[in-house]
Amino acid sequence: MQTLEIDVTKQTLELKVNGQPSNLELDPRTSLLDALREHLHLTGTKKGCDHGQCGACTVLINGQRINSCLTLAVMHQGDEIVTIEGLGSPQALHPLQAAFIERDAFQCGYCTSGQICSAVGMLAEVKAGWPSHATADVASPRIELTDAEIRERMSGNICRCAAYPNIVAAIRDVSQGGGQ
Ligand code: FES
Ligand code: FES
């Protein structure tokens, strides 16, 4: 009897990252984080814990923030994936990137790309009227982004250097129309 051998450790897929489509061949068990870092060499996205506890790996999928260590690359064919490399450029920083520099909102910088991607997603959630645990009036269509709201909504992003006051200040600046 003839046997058909299939290599289940290899799958081809196309990922669209920062507007650029790329064809990959990888193990279907590869996390999106590892696909970005090890296969596409987009190392701005960081691996902190690799199990959903630190937020260092946060990227945007179709505009929403996600821990890329907790999702498989093969689940994201057809999605618009944005990493820190796609948010701005050294010549044209995203307002949050500029505000983080202005407010000195980092020390080692390891958590920073995750903080910034998370803040982009978070501000979109506020704009869409999504309440948080810190929202005083969940029935109100307009959410006031207080510092307590920012801290609660960014609580999934850990900063080992404890740059939290400056991170909150940078996000507050942008939410109030500041930033460069
Ligand atoms: Fe993904 Fe820590 S590396 S949450
Ligand atoms: Fe070092 Fe946040 S700046 S972990």
Largest sheet: 5 strands, mixed
Helix percent band = 25-40%
Bound molecules: FE2/S2 (inorganic) cluster
Helix/strand order, N-terminal first: EEHEEEHHHHH
The number of helical elements comes to 6
N- to C-terminal distance: 69 Å
User: What are the low-pLDDT stretches, counting only 5+ consecutive residues below 50?
Assistant: none
Structural class: alpha+beta
Q: If you compute it from the alpha carbons, what radius of gyration comes out, rounded to the nearest whole angstrom?
A: 18 Å
CATH evolutionary superfamily of the largest domain: [2Fe-2S]-binding domain
How many structural domains does the protein architecture include? 2
Text of the CATH class of the largest domain: Mainly Alpha
Please, what is the oligomeric state?
A: single chain
Q: What characteristic shape results from the CA principal axes? A: elongated
Q: In order across it, which strands form the biggest sheet?
A: 2-1-5-3-4
How are the SSEs placed, and which strands pair?
Layout: E1 11-17, E2 20-26, H1 32-39, E3 58-61, E4 64-67, E5 80-82, H2 84-87, H3 95-102, H4 112-127, H5 147-153, H6 164-175
Helix pairs in contact: 3-6
Plain-language structure description:
This protein has 180 residues and is α+β, with helices and mostly antiparallel strands. It has 2 domains: 11-87, Beta-grasp domain (Ubiquitin-like (UB roll), Roll); 95-175, [2Fe-2S]-binding domain (DNA polymerase, domain 1). 31% of the residues lie in helices and 14% in strands. The protein has a 5-stranded mixed β-sheet, sandwiched between helices. It is elongated and about 70 Å long. The relative contact order is 0.15. The protein binds FE2/S2 (inorganic) cluster (2 copies). The site of one FE2/S2 (inorganic) cluster has 12 residues, from loops.
